[in-house]
């Protein structure tokens, strides 16, 4: 039995019951694939259900405000995916009359759609033999064929894509692509793969040569940058506060946050009070206290945020326009969402 037939045979017995597997609707497949980038299925599934309920069609998503989209996306991370999703929905609804491109090359032109997502949609929805290559596929192919090329190098990416394309089942490309992805996620796992009960075990190079733990190979990660965030949580006598939309092209663009002072190192209260930005925001006397006694370390892919939430109590402030009861309407980073929940508990 050849490689793709073995995987399809395994898949037909072991595949997961997922809502986007029950349709060839490109809107649903596209939505699921965007959500599952850098995200486990268990985490992404509730968001998929929430989005399809709020936005049953691409037209509904296109009509939504960006703020609404970001609010529903809150907690899923990598927020550029949500902004690209919204942009592309508007393009498809307004420029393509709601019709998704029906082939890999045209799908690849959509904002936020890369090689993997274009291949998935083209194969699942339009039966085009375009091979998907994601983390699960890298792992299966590198182990089965004993490939040591780094999966995050230009050479490795090209080599694996070419190999994947030669292996695809041209009669059932969508089924095969889902089979190899599921096989990597459920069976040929990063840790403790199920090698003793594997349909590919009699011809797997990694298993034969004892390389399962060594493959796939990844080049060393980019050095992680440390950043120091000081959020100023304003609380006035009339229960109002200040939140601002985060601008620029950095992390969390379009989300809301408390006034932020970023410093080059962790600071204490006396250093905060002497800070020029703090002085400009609070020229008059205010009561300041540190909410989290231990610095919160929020880890992103290439940066770690060392965070302190400073509660600033003041009689009033000209920038305080938001009532505390309205804060849950605004999309915020998970870091701030967790703080708000803890702060509300402590206030009770």
From TrEMBL:
The keyword Iron-sulfur applies. Keywords: 4Fe-4S, DNA damage, DNA repair, Glycosidase, Hydrolase, Iron, Iron-sulfur, Metal-binding. SUPFAM superfamilies: DNA-glycosylase, Nudix. Its cofactor is [4Fe-4S] cluster. Transmembrane segments: none annotated. One of its GO terms (molecular function) is purine-specific mismatch base pair DNA N-glycosylase activity. Its EC number is 3.2.2.31. Residues 35-186 form the HhH-GPD domain. Belongs to the Nth/MutY family. This is Adenine DNA glycosylase. It comes from Tenacibaculum holothuriorum.
């Amino acid at each position: 039995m050849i490689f793709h037939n073995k995987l399809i045979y395994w898949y037909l017995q072991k595949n997961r019951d997922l809502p986007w597997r029950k349709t060839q609707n490109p809107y649903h497949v596209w939505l699921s694939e965007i959500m599952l980038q850098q995200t486990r299925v268990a985490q992404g599934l509730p968001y998929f259900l929430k989005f399809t309920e709020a936005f049953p069609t691409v037209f509904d998503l296109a009509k939504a405000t960006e703020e609404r989209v970001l609010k529903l996306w809150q907690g899923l991370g990598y927020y550029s995916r949500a902004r690209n999703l919204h942009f592309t929905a508007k393009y498809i609804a307004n420029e393509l009359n709601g019709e998704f491109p029906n082939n890999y090359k045209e799908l690849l032109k959509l904002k936020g759609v890369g090689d993997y997502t274009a291949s998935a949609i083209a194969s699942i929805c339009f039966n085009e033999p375009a091979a998907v290559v994601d983390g699960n596929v890298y792992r299966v192919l590198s182990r089965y064929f004993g490939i040591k090329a780094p999966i995050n190098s230009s050479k490795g990416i090209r080599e694996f894509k070419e190999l994947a394309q030669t292996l695809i089942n041209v009669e059932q490309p969508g089924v095969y692509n889902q089979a190899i992805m599921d096989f990597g996620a459920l069976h040929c796992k990063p840790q403790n793969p199920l090698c003793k009960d594997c349909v590919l075990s009699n011809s797997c190079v990694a298993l034969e040569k004892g390389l399962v733990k060594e493959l796939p190979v990844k080049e060393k990660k980019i050095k992680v940058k440390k950043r120091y965030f000081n959020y100023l949580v304003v609380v006035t006598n009339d229960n109002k506060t200040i939140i601002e939309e985060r601008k620029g092209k950095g992390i969390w663009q379009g989300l809301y946050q408390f006034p932020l002072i970023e410093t080059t190192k962790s600071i204490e209260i006396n250093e905060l009070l002497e800070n020029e930005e703090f002085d400009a925001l609070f020229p008059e006397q205010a009561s300041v206290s540190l909410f989290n006694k231990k610095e919160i370390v929020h880890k992103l892919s290439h940066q770690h945020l060392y965070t302190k939430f400073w509660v600033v109590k003041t009689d009033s402030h000209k920038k305080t326009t938001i009532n505390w009861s309205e804060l849950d309407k605004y999309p915020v980073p998970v870091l701030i969402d967790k703080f708000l929940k803890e702060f509300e508990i402590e206030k009770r």
